[in-house]
Amino acid sequence: MVFVEPQLDLQQIGLSHPRVKQVLDIQRNTAPNRHKLFVAEGLWAHNLLLETGAPVECFFWCPEAIYSDEARKRSSEIAARAYRAYRVSPKTMERICERERPDGMVSIAQLPAWDRDELSFGDSALVLVADAVEIPGNLGTLLRSMDAAGADCLVMTNRRTRLTHPKVFKGSQGMCLTMPSVEFDEVEDAAIWLKRNGFSVYLADTDDARNYREVDYRGRVAFVVGSERYGISKAWYAHGFGRVFVPMLGRADSLNVSVSASVLLYEARAQQDRW
Amino acid sequence: MVFVEPQLDLQQIGLSHPRVKQVLDIQRNTAPNRHKLFVAEGLWAHNLLLETGAPVECFFWCPEAIYSDEARKRSSEIAARAYRAYRVSPKTMERICERERPDGMVSIAQLPAWDRDELSFGDSALVLVADAVEIPGNLGTLLRSMDAAGADCLVMTNRRTRLTHPKVFKGSQGMCLTMPSVEFDEVEDAAIWLKRNGFSVYLADTDDARNYREVDYRGRVAFVVGSERYGISKAWYAHGFGRVFVPMLGRADSLNVSVSASVLLYEARAQQDRW
């Protein structure tokens, strides 16, 4: 079989082009980002963009940096899907890329926006509330664990880190594209939304709490986990929600937030018997 | 109450001093490190050195950079414990420190060495085998989870990352100092050691495996987890050990290794009913 190089005829742009600057801004994660744009790098991330149908704002293509046949093929598909597509030099590609060897493909893409009022849940459901979680890598690992445990939705309150942070995309293995997530400015509104949707809510806390193995998680269950340093914010304690703790039997005083959330999610999932 | 500044009269050294170079070498994690030396920074890490009695090879003290009264007090205690102690300038302190504001304290300390033949286990015991785990942060989080779950020992085979890596110390919250760990050059020897100590061994694998909730973990149990990219190495499959899997119900094909290990450890621990 003869492999035919796809003929992409794209305008070449350089480091001073506004779109190139935009990539760097998104990676720095400093400027406002109302459209929830993030940067996807390499073949694996682009396959995920194609699978999930995420909108691609801008595709940067560097044929000299492509090393896999699959990337050559996908380049045409992504270019066809993107609102804009440009060719860049290997040097520019290296500048806009955080990873090494991105296989000639970088894109600015858009995270989906979920409407909290349109999400629907089954008789059994699992929601995780991340309250003021600070470290992007932790939020990423949380999303990856939620995906694995078959959770239904991430709720964010007192948001400290953005889902568009490069480390969230990596840590979640791109699951920020597929795991529904909604954000509330006020804890109060999140609590009302959970109650209205029939969720039993449990705060992960060690004080005045029950061992997480001794609770019945059938039905719709939401766990609230808090910031790495300060725990769950006060406002969550005003609603009479239950509290559960994961026993800590050693010398350190805490578990990594994504670890404790995963232990809780898997316990609930096993009880809900949905596997 | 009048606070009396401890009077430490230490020789001042600069960037070109061999001990300063040694700190940088250990942090770079490139040179051989037979004596298992690692770098401890700041008050929290030094409190842990004092609590655990870890040998302190060299203490670097910068009184101008101290901002807490407790650090002032601990400085004298650490200096008294250290084989060597020097004063350094704020500029030198900044160079040898990875974190910001180390509270005037940096040390080269030694990880304990555990003798595999002298470790003893109770009727119920939990061991985690990390086979070829590559990412230091993952190994650190593993150790932190092992501490929390009250595990007894970390076994390393096909070691790819060192326990002295700065990210292991941080990720484990210093639990690499207290959680016993032993290393085997050959998987064969680790398998024999586990059998001789009466452990039921389970490989964490998705192929031909049982759901992790359907296994009886009473007694002495060891879980084997593998590298982030390649899983468990072949040699582990030659011993007829059982296999367990944590169900993955989503789109991504794997869980973070420290997350899946934690889910397994907590399940076993709950069954062993040791809390």
Automatic annotation (TrEMBL), chains A, B:
This is tRNA/rRNA methyltransferase. Coiled coil: none annotated. SUPFAM superfamilies: alpha/beta knot, L30e-like. One of its GO terms (biological process) is methylation. One of its GO terms (molecular function) is RNA binding. Belongs to the class IV-like SAM-binding methyltransferase superfamily. RNA methyltransferase TrmH family. Residues 18-106 form the MRM3-like substrate binding domain. Keywords: Methyltransferase, Transferase. Residues 126-266 form the tRNA/rRNA methyltransferase SpoU type domain. Pfam families: MRM3-like_sub_bind, SpoU_methylase. It comes from the Bacteria. It comes from Virgisporangium aliadipatigenens.
